[in-house]
Amino acid sequence: MILEPIRPRILSVQRIPDAHPALLRSYGADPERHQSLGLITCDQDDSTFVALDEATKHAPVDVVYARSFYAGAAHASGPLSGEVLGVLAAAGPEEIDEGLRAAVACLEHDACFYTADAQGETAVFPHVVTSLGHYLSKEAGLEVGDAMAYLVAPPMEATIAFDRALKEANVRAVKIFGPPTETNFAAAWLTGELAECEAAAAAFARAVVEVARSPLYR
Amino acid sequence: MSATRELIARLREQLGESAPLSPAGPALPLTPPPRRVFPSPRTRSSLQGQAAAHTTALVGIGRVGTRYATDVVLQFQAELAVAHHAVASLLPEEWIEQNGLLNLQTRVSDHQEFLLRPDLGRRLSDASRQALQTRARKDIDIQPILADGLSAEACIGSGMEVLGALIGECESRGWTVGTPMCARFGRVWLQDEIGELLGAKVCIIILGERPGLGTGDGLSAYVVHNPAIGKTDSDRNMISNIHARGTSPNSAASRLADLAGAMLEQGTSGVGLDLSRVAPGNTATELRAPQVRESLVEVGR
Q1: CATH 3.30.70.1710 domain extents, chain A
Q2: Pairing of strands A113-115, A123-129
């Protein structure tokens, strides 16, 4: 079986209803506007970034912190670490709850890696964000509501597949994160019309599968 | 289904994968955050509902968690707006003459001053004192006065009706009634100066009452015997809530005449007046029919 969803495992979800101003500041929040924090750790960093962005579309929350841990979930510092910590900040705990619900729902039903080979050893993230929230739009320098193909794969597969995606679809490269990322992958953000983003993601996933099938011949 | 899952499902087909994409959904041993801190349904006991049916006061309104329900808050704000609007309303000067009333002014010069200086609203301007001396009938039994008080809206709305009913009622009882007059920016104690100047035995002032929630159209009437500057509230009798949902103009007129009659007979007013000897219409204490609170907001279902 190929292109099977690899379910993200949410490792911990926590709230701090009334966070200390020093903590708020050190995680990038603004004590003037933010009082509460919501934290989430997960074993898939890119799925979580998409889920945090989804949260900004459902609740008045800001993503103040979202970083991957080095070498990924297989080398986590503890059972609750996974490969990413995401932090939402908001004016109050109700907003945080609303945001966390949206993020968890996104991880459960939408954002995930897929297997790119029959053994399930190669992982690919050919995700299409149909409408960007405040977080990813700011990170990418795009407008809220734009479509974006969020593409991730291991270095060799990704490099071939980025090229394929850019050539097969009418999309523009927003950012290409060459290997190694913190988790030793490579990633790219492409934008364009929604249908073109979907075409780019499909071309990307197909290319990753093909490289995985025939690693020594091209 | 998400856009990404759809495109992966299509791609699997193209790549020869026959099994359908495994379903998404919660497969995580995760306790989601609580849905709400407080229970959402509005709680209101049947007893509260029954009690609320007997009054327009804000009782038995139920609660949602520890808070008011939204429609209660909106209704409160709407009713408060009605009261604010009534306080802010002004009595046009031409209205007094158009209604054939003697036009009187107090010592107040503008509306803001009227609200802030009750003492000035209790005294006539020099010009009005003069007008009263020359143009008003003197040495009468009853002197009726209309005034804007704290709700010009109420005065415009039903002031003439109450005044007319009162004059008719007094004349039918054989009393001499003074010149109908109306004072702008007037307060209750203005009746002392006017009554004293004219030598009235009983002075009755009808004026817009302090608006309450949802009630900006209410009139009150104050009755004093042997009016003179220096009389206090303990020298007065009054009836309130003369409006569509309260005491009707005709009923108010007959009750005021009953009070005036008792004052003429007993030679006093206020706490000195023996109300047990006032005609029964005035002291009847039958229970009022249940009132329905007028809804100013629409509640969606």
Answers
A1: 7-112, 116-213
A2: antiparallel
A95 touches chain B (CB under 8 A): no
Q: Tell me what pLDDT residue B291 has.
A: 65
**Could you give the count of Cα atoms lying within 13 Å of A161 in the half-sphere of its Cβ?**
36
Q: Give A179's pLDDT tier (boundaries 50, 70, 90).
A: very high
Q: pLDDT for A63-117, tens place per residue? A: 999 999 999 999 999 999 999 999 999 999 999 999 999 999 999 999 999 999 9
Topology of domain A116-213 in CATH is: Alpha-Beta Plaits (3.30.70)
Please report the domains of chain B, with CATH numbers, ordered by start residue: 88-282 (3.40.50.11240)
> Does A128 contact B32 at a Cβ distance shorter than 8 Å?
no
What is the C-alpha to C-alpha distance for residues B168 and B253, in angstroms, rounded to an integer? 9
pLDDT of B26 > 80? The answer is: no
As a whole number, mean pLDDT of residues B91-116 equals: 95
CB A84 within 8 A of CB A63: no
Tokens of residue A200, six digits: 């780019």
From chain A, the residues in CB contact with B34 under 8 A are: 97
Give the ipTM of the model, two decimals please.
Answer: 0.82
Interface of B with A in 34-73 (CB under 8 A): 34, 37
**CA distance to partner chain B, nearest, from residue A7 (Å):** 8
Residues 6+ apart with CB under 8 A from A201: A126, A127, A128, A149, A151, A165, B4, B7
- How far, in Å, CA of B122 to CA of B252, rounded? 24
Burial class (CB in 10 A: 0-12, 13-18, 19+), B281: exposed
Give the residue-averaged pLDDT of A146-154: 97
Q: Does domain A7-112 have CATH number 3.30.70.1710?
A: yes
